[in-house]
Every structure is written in structure tokens, then in C-alpha cells.
Amino acid sequence: MIRPILLHPDPRLRKRAEPVEAITPEIRALAADMLATMYDAPGVGLAAPQVGVPKRLLVMDCVKDPEAPPRPLVLINPAVVWASEATNTYEEGCLSIPEHYAEVTRPAEVRVRWTDLDGAEQEEHFAGLWATCAQHEIDHLDGRLFIDYLGPIKRQLITRKMEKFKRERARAGA
Ligand code: NI
Question: In this structure, are residues 147 and 155 in contact, taking their beta carbons and an 8 Å threshold?
């Protein structure tokens, strides 16, 4: 089931999400819905707060090659356990801030630890787009958005445009 994605500004995107305590049928359904929602958007990552669920769960798939098989990942209670000194700058976007993009500098490589849907602990070294995406999505779990890395003027400009976009959308009854 595709779930509606919350749009910035929304107080639910600014709250720190709670750890997932147990992998219940609801959590499994949430993960499946989030993957469907992410692929439908389309996007490379989605965090539970973006669909209004204040839990520490995210999904991602940064396989760019359309010929390559997809690699859907579900990360429960993810944490960055190591980050490289070297940084990388990517033009980031966000499904909660559609059609706005900006360059963000983050550690180029990260090691992330999480629990998978079978309750097993996983750890993986991410580089490239995977590293950027993992950090962007984990930020969502802490109520942080990529625009927080921009200067205040640029951030306010995007926020004002998004407020206008949401007003117009509400008026259109969409
Ligand atoms: Ni995002």
C-alpha cells in the first residue's frame, strides 16, 4: 500500500523518532508500504517519519543502473558507527521537499549498524550515493532535513516556496 508522504513544513518531520522495540506485523507492513511508496515516488530513500510514523525505520535502494537488480534495504534502529574524514558533496533532494535540490557536504563513507526485519544485526560500509542516502535518511529519524545544512536565507526561501505549494495544493483539493 502506497502511503501519503508528509511535506515540509510539518511538525511531524521535526520530531525525534522512537526506537522500534519489536518487529511486529505492523512494522513489517510499514516496511513493505514504505518500499512501495519509495519506488512509486520514485526515490532512493524514505524514513518512517515521512509517512507520519515516529519510529526509527528507513528504507533505501540506491541502485541507479536500470539493468541492475534492485536492492531494497530495510534499516531498523540504524546508527552511524563510523564516518570518514573525507567528505563528499552531493546535490540532495527529498520526497518531503519535492523539486528543491541543494548541494550538501557529508562524510564520504560511513559504517552503519542496524537491525533487519528478521531481527538480525547488520553492519555495512557505505560509499557514494549509498553513504549520502543513509545519512540523509538517518537525519530524518532525528527530525533533521537536508535544508538544515544550508544557509538561513536559502533554507527560508525553500520553506516559503513549500508553504505556498502546500496552500495551493490544499486549495486544489489534492
Ligand atoms: Ni528526505
Answer: yes
Question: How does pLDDT run across 92-105, given as a tens digit for each residue?
Answer: 999 999 999 999 99
pLDDT in tens, 98-153: 999 999 999 999 999 999 999 999 999 999 999 999 999 999 999 999 999 999 99
Among candidate residues 26, 85, 137, 163, the one labeled active-site is 137
CA 136 to centroid of ligand 1, rounded, Å: 6
Distance CA 26, CA 82 (A): 31
Could you tell me the sign of the dihedral formed by the alpha carbons of 72, 77, 81, 87, in that order? positive
Q: Domains in the chain, start-ordered, CATH in brackets?
A: 11-172 (3.90.45.10)
Measured in whole angstroms, the distance separating CA 33 from the mean position of its chain's CA atoms is 14
- Cα 77 to ligand 1 centre (Å): 17
Confidence of residue 64 (pLDDT cuts 50, 70, 90): confident
Based on C-alpha coordinates, what's the Rg of the chain? 16
- Whole-angstrom Cα distance, residue 59 to residue 80? 15
